[in-house]
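Problem 12. The chain below contains 99 residues. Write out its predicted structure in token notation.
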Amino acid sequence: MREYYFYILSNHSRTLYAGVTNNLERRLYEHKHKLLPGFTSRYHLSRLVYFEVYADIREAIAREKQVKGWLRSKKIALIESINPNWRDLSEDWHRGEAE
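Solution.
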């Protein structure tokens, strides 16, 4: 069974980016190494601060759209509900690699 992920990235300035992927580890690698041009690369968004797992891609996309429509304060509350210190939840995935 495939898994799909809704995720939120941040940086040291707490800029936020929400996305969806079917391979969270690969996508984080791409973000951390700036392999994806655009917003995440320009603002150095490589810290995984929140994610959810779905069995259906449509549910993951619907969640992304829902959260993107929220006020920043509500997004912050969501992140801090499981990650109050804004720790990089992927920090152990690629040991020894620079952020």
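Discussion. The chain has four helices and three strands. Students who got a different answer should revisit the alignment rule from Section 12.3.
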